[in-house]
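ping. complex inputs:
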Amino acid sequence: MTEILLKNKVAASGNILVITTKFENEFGLPEKVNDYIKAELKKEGKTTLTYNYIGKYISIFIVDPKKEHSALFEQIRKHGSSVADGVNAHKGTELHIYNQTKHPRYSLAAAEGVALANYQFLKYRPKAKANTLKSIIITNSDLEAGKVTELNTICKATFMARDLVNEPVNSLNATGLANAFKQMGKEAGFKVEVFNKKKIVELKMGGLLSVNAGSVDEPTFTIMEYKPAKAKNKKPFVLVGKGVVYDTGGLSLKPTLNSMDMMKCDMAGAAAVGAALYAIAKSKLNVHVIGLVPATDNRPGFNAFAPGDIITMMDGSTVEMLNSDAEGRMILADALHYAKRYKPELTIDLATLTGSAMAAIGTSGIVGMGNASEKQKAKLHESSFNVFERIAELPFWDDYNDLLKSDIADQKNIGGPYGGSITAGKFLEKFTDYPYYHLDIAGPAFITARDNYRPKGGTGVGVRLLFDFFKNQ
Ligand code: BES
Ligand code: MN
Ligand code: ZN
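pong. complex structure:
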């Protein structure tokens, strides 16, 4: 992993990223080079310049302080991403970030962009070329060391989530996912308890068991808890993550082309919850947070639940299951019901829940909805722009409940042809009795082409968002 270091008294040398409002040559560049750079930067609309000077890579980023805050920070992260490529192309091992502005946070944003872009998933091709860049050194910013440690933790947690998502189902089943959480808990210092199938049967988690019926692997239900001595919140926050380790659609089988190929990503919500707890615990944030992950694969095996089945859920309500590909809500419902025992301040679930969310806003953001207080919603919204995992909120009107009505059970597991991500959210709401917010990450969880510092494959979406949200509580 790339490490970010803070070395305040080191002169920037070698590969350098300069963040500035007006470039000053503090790097001993010859007059000719300096003149060239200044002339280039004078050109209309020019905000970045990359220069190769005796084998060293120098990149200059001009900050426009008039730019809207979140957009500026994102622009810096993205620039960091291109700098990571530049340094790797030069086979550089180090990058110095030199900040000529009065805002040390720009250095953090740049380092974050570089580090997140430098991620690789090389487990299954150990002979492939690893990136050469290993250290990002922030040289002159007036930053507390703690901020840099925190950023390293956030990046590491994001990579953990990406790794879990990139891991295919033939090496990561529900038990494997639960074991990964145990490992994270041990490393960061939070409690992890895993229920096996026997316990899940005892608890009558009918939703989770119904999805698991077509599988040869056992389901798991993981409870993670981070409870610091001086927690600011009396009632805990609960996070619920969809842990479908693979979604074939079940008997309502997905057509293979372009729809099943990426379905190892269907536990991205679970990965984000585990990794966020890792970052929160490792950074010792003063919040009491509980993470719940129901996990199974969704397969059309011999005893697979069949469209038309009526399932009795953990809360005792019944669901007419008309499409086995709407499996996420079946397992999440039991977890949301389970969450009631904590009397949560707020419960947030993260789930790759509907193609409809992706159809609505693509991969650029998260679809959000819920009945949380306006205050909590505003905080979530703000965090989502801080980290640029933006939430686009959809309505959560009660009319949508009508679409879930069944003649034979309390509700159906599918709505009509339209508003699919909202009906999914309304389905879930019925299993809650506390303030609730639903994040549908189907779009941004997994991307099929690199997008700046978001690599192809698992993106780790949700980790940075949750961390920022809890840091600001
Ligand atoms: N896991 C999928 C949703 C998904 C789609 C995630 C694309 C990531 C990318 C989910 O279980 C699903 O299949 N949803 C169905 C629901 C429908 C049957 C009501 C969908 O969106 O088509
Ligand atoms: Mn599905
Ligand atoms: Zn799914």
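The radius of gyration is 24 Å.
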